[in-house]
Amino acid sequence: MTKEISQAVIKRMPRYYRYLGELLDDNVERISSRDLSKRMNVTASQIRQDLNNFGGFGQQGYGYNVKFLYEVIGRILGLDQTHNIIVIGAGNLGQALANYVKFEKFGFVITALFDVDPELVGTKVRNIPVHNIDELDEFCKENDVDIAALTLPKSKADTVAHHLVDLGVGAIWNFAHVDLDLREDDVIVENVHLSDSLMRLSYNIVQKKFN
Amino acid sequence: MTKEISQAVIKRMPRYYRYLGELLDDNVERISSRDLSKRMNVTASQIRQDLNNFGGFGQQGYGYNVKFLYEVIGRILGLDQTHNIIVIGAGNLGQALANYVKFEKFGFVITALFDVDPELVGTKVRNIPVHNIDELDEFCKENDVDIAALTLPKSKADTVAHHLVDLGVGAIWNFAHVDLDLREDDVIVENVHLSDSLMRLSYNIVQKKFN
């Protein structure tokens, strides 16, 4: 079933999950597609269409059961499983990721950081050890690594990424300012290009000024 | 002219800019749409179509002049101007942003950080001062602030964002795990939802496992 789900729907799923989580926090048991649509700034028909992809949980006159829908979407997103993450690059950004306790709530556990800087190697971030990058191969052989987050300079990112793929790491969360030259069949890549996002902001600022 | 450009094209612009910058670094003077397409993993016809939006700089049998195209796209993205950024929240992520020297190359200058933590207030990150959040109003009155980056807990993000809009800040770069409840007419918002990105990664991992 899930095979036919479009990438556009997948992109919206984490947002649904986030909103439903907020509703749960507020002890809301059920919600109509209309109320959900107001809250999410999406049309009610879009919501019904999206959620129908997963079997259509809404009941006429009742709406959606918040907890049930939250759990189903969580499962679809793989959040009922544990994903072990290592972070390559223990600078500020790497440390920021390691400090996000919230990720663990969704099953993402950061198990180690790696760096070349002797001042960082041997330290801990929220009890997570910073290893020397030399120990990467051994660590990947001895531990399950589902995701590697790359927070290193773009000049090194491609080499390290290829090495990680060779080590059997199946997914890369790339923060380096470069599109990694990897084959889609070998590895799943999700990019967070901070500069791109700043540039879109800047584009919209300029547009607003002159329109 | 630029009014008619679709959001999909805008989304690709920073990528073009990034690739053209790499070509410039490699002293490449011109490139055919075919070679650019190979490098960017986009079809050549897509590239021609995209770049035609900005006047069509390619010449039959010559290709694109890299430097010229780089500068034109930079101008369209507003990168020929200076954008002053303040960062609200001087934790690891805020400090990581302040440490990205590269942003300055594109005209984004971080001028101040703000926090409530007495241990952070008064310190500096790469010579950028961390102010007490109490000083935010005065700072915004006395200095040009084009963009505010929010790296604070989601419980505080909405209140602070509204306050920034009241202070006249026109653009928000939101890292808080929440969709801000702001009117599009009042302020430009660009979200970086790290959890959403992790969840898409997780979804694709699960899909790959079972397909």
UniProtKB/TrEMBL annotation, chains A, B:
Record keywords, A-Z: Cytoplasm, DNA-binding, NAD, Repressor, Transcription, Transcription regulation
UniProt KW Transport keyword: no
Annotated GO biological process: negative regulation of DNA-templated transcription; response to redox state
Location (main, coarse): cytoplasm
Domain CoA-binding: 78-179
GO cellular component, one term: cytoplasm
GO MF term (any one): DNA binding
Record-stated family: Belongs to the transcriptional regulatory Rex family.
Protein name: Redox-sensing transcriptional repressor Rex
Record organism: Lachnobacterium bovis DSM 14045
Gene transcribed to yield this protein: rex
